[in-house]
Amino acid sequence: CQLYTGTGSSHAVTFNDTDTDMQPDLVITKNREASRAPVLFDSIRGVQKRFVTSTNDTSGTDANMLTAFGSDGFTVGSSNECNESSDGIVAWCWKAGTTSGISGSPSITPDSYSFNATSGFSMIKYDGNGTAGATLPHGLGAAPEFIIIKSTDASESWAVGHDSMTWNYYMYLNTTAAAADDVKYFNDTSPTSSLFTIGNDGSTNDASNTYIAYVFKPVQGYSKFGTYEGNGHGAIAFGGTFVYTGFRPAFVMTKSIDSTSDWQIFDNKREGYNVDNDGLVWNDTDAEVTTDYIDLLANGFKLRIATDPNVAETYVYAAFAEAPFVNSEGVPCNAR
To answer: What are the pLDDT digits (tens) for 121-136?
Structure first.
């Protein structure tokens, strides 16, 4: 996660964490102060190619948005979404990087891909074939638990699958709708260590459309994808649900599967301390909300509010680490 202030003209954004040195492959930016769309860029589609996560728009070209992936950051143009003058902007970034040698015997051969088994993230671009039960490789070496798919050339919604709601169900990233049971999205089939399966809905596999899938597996001490039960208790009683992740989160996404609910995003940079962990959403253009929603803890997160994301319903979440409670081998980390 990287914060920066917009300048209104082209400038490079450099990661300022002392332990961060990477060329990102997925960048999602959001203007924190104005009603601007969240925009997504990836190295597979290339620079200047943007998605808007709050709409079903196709992959558009904008020379004033993200213009380069740098060795330790990225460059943005004059767009208000990415770089409005004097406004605070947040960027969430992931690394893939391996673009050859993916394993598996899929029924659809990807057009291109980039994967990183160590960090548990891959991007797979493919042409749909309209066949229910079609399979694609992901390159992660273990079954993924969180998948987001978007058509690049058709106005289809963002299809989301999450292991905790089983692969019979789907949700749309660009709407607040609850989870729905439909075989046409992920074919009621759990991913394997090498492949994931899609149905024949237009959001995942129409024969005339091209798609990109963003695929995540859990990595001990770094990422976790799960579910929790909200209890509707607020901060006064200190009774909000606690969610154990096994690490101190840098990023948390939550979404109710039972009813309409935003895809809410929290991170350790805005404001960066408890109790002030401000909220943004990916399904709308809303500016940052300063409600004290959650506390980010050494081994998970705890809800502080009696409304969404802590009503008495089931929520799915995706969390990524700032610092692990244990390392990737399960060994506890030493204190500094």
So the answer is: 999 999 999 999 999 9
